[in-house]
Write a structure and sequence with these properties.
Length: 333
C-alpha cells in the first residue's frame, strides 16, 4: 500500500488530555482480526466477513492489516482484488501483510497445491500493493537440507520482488528454523535482498534468545515485527501454548519495553504487528478484541519511550464490556 512514513525524528506518540494518540503504525496480523479461527484447525479461514475485520481494525487505530491465504479466495470472489484494495484504502490501511504459502520449500507431491497458493498470493500482492508476504518454516521439524531451503527461499524472494513486495521468513522454536539466528542464517544463505525475517517476540522469548541480540539484527533483514505476551509457564506443547494462551501486551511475563527498545536501536520504526492468538481473544467480539490488542500494544510502545516510574496515559477508547470482563480474570504468571 502507498503510505507516508513518519520521519525518524518525530515523537513516537503524544498525549491529548487523557488519551494516548500514537504516531506508531500498528498492523493487525491475520489471526488478530480473524475471530473464532485458529492455526491448529483443519479449516484456517476466518468466519468473519473481510469488510467487518478491516473496519474493526481501522476503528481500533490500526493502519496495517494481515490477510491469510486461506481467506483470499472468498474475499476475492466477493469483492475482487481491486475492491479489496479500495476497501483497505477507504479504511486508512497503508501496510498490508499477506501470509502463508504451504510447503513452499517442497518439490514433492505437495508442490501443486503450494504453487496454486503461491501464484494467487503473488498476484494479490501486486494488485493490492502488499508491504510483504510472510512464510513459515516446517512446523513438523522434519529432516531438511539447508542448501535446498536456501535455494527455494531465494526463488520465492525473487518472485516476491517481481511482484513489487518483499518476503519475510518467520521462525518457530518447535520447527526446523528455531531461532532468530537460524532465520538470519538461512536468509543470508539465500542471498536475495528482498528476503528477511519476521520477528515475533513470542518466538524470541520461548527460544530463550537474549533481548540484547535484537539490537544487532541488520535493519534491511527485518521485514516485520510482531508484539504479544505470554505467561512465564508453557502449558502443553509450544505450539499449543502459542495458539491458545498468548496474552495481550503487558499482561504476561515478557520484557516488551526492552524488546521494543532493542528493535528501535536496530533502526526499526514500524509497522509494529500485533499478533494475538488465544482462546480468550477468539471469544471476544472482533471490535472489542482489536481495541484491546491495539491499546495494550500502544501502552508498551509508550512505556519503552518513558523513564521508569512515569505515568502511562489511559486507553485511547472505551474498551467494550466483553473485553473488560475478560481482563478481570486472574492471570497465571
Amino acid at each position: 500500500m502507498i503510505a507516508s512514513t513518519p520521519m525518524a525524528d518525530q515523537p513516537a506518540n503524544r498525549e491529548h488530555g487523557d488519551r494516548l494518540i500514537s504516531d506508531e503504525r500498528l498492523l493487525a496480523t491475520c489471526w488478530t482480526s480473524a475471530g473464532d479461527a485458529a492455526s491448529d484447525r483443519a479449516d484456517l479461514s476466518s468466519p468473519l466477513p473481510l469488510r467487518e475485520r478491516i473496519e474493526a481494525a481501522s476503528a481500533a487505530g490500526f493502519t496495517g492489516f494481515g490477510l491469510l491465504s486461506a481467506d483470499l479466495p472468498a474475499a476475492e470472489q466477493e469483492y475482487g482484488l481491486r475492491g479489496i484494495r479500495a476497501m483497505l484504502e477507504a479504511n486508512g490501511i497503508v501496510d498490508l501483510e499477506l501470509e502463508y504459502i504451504p510447503y513452499w520449500w517442497d518439490d514433492g507431491p505437495r508442490r501443486e497445491e503450494s504453487d496454486r497458493v503461491r501464484h494467487s498470493l503473488l498476484i494479490a500482492a501486486e494488485v493490492l500493493g502488499a508491504r510483504h508476504i510472510k512464510v513459515t518454516p516446517d512446523g513438523d521439524d522434519a529432516p531438511w537440507d539447508r542448501a535446498h531451503w536456501a535455494a527455494k527461499l531465494a526463488e520465492l524472494a525473487a518472485q516476491a520482488h517481481d511482484a513489487g513486495t518483499r518476503l519475510g521468513l518467520e521462525f518457530f522454536p518447535w520447527s526446523n528454523i528455531k531461532t532468530l539466528h537460524d532465520g538470519l542464517r538461512l536468509v543470508e544463505d539465500a542471498g536475495h535482498d528482498a528476503a528477511g525475517v519476521v520477528i515475533d517476540v513470542w518466538h524470541i522469548e520461548r527460544a530463550h534468545t537474549p533481548v540484547a541480540d535484537l539490537k544487532s539484527v541488520p535493519l534491511h533483514r527485518i521485514i516485520g515485527v510482531e508484539l504479544n505476551d505470554a505467561d512465564r509457564r508453557v502449558v502443553g506443547t509450544l505450539f499449543e501454548d502459542t495458539v491458545h494462551r498468548r496474552r495481550y501486551c503487558g499482561e504476561g511475563s515478557f520484557d516488551l519495553p526492552g524488546m521494543i527498545t532493542a528493535l528501535r536501536a536496530a533502526g526499526w520504526t514500524g509497522p509494529w504487528g500485533v499478533e494475538i492468538l488465544s482462546d480468550e481473544h477468539r471469544s471476544l467480539p472482533v471490535r472489542d478484541a482489536l481495541d484491546r490488542a491495539a491499546d495494550s500494544a500502544r501502552r508498551q510502545l509508550e512505556l519503552a519511550h518513558r523513564p521508569a516510574g512515569a505515568t502511562l496515559s489511559q486507553p485511547s477508547r472505551t474498551v467494550g464490556r466483553a473485553a473488560q470482563a475478560a481482563a478481570g480474570g486472574e492471570k497465571d504468571r
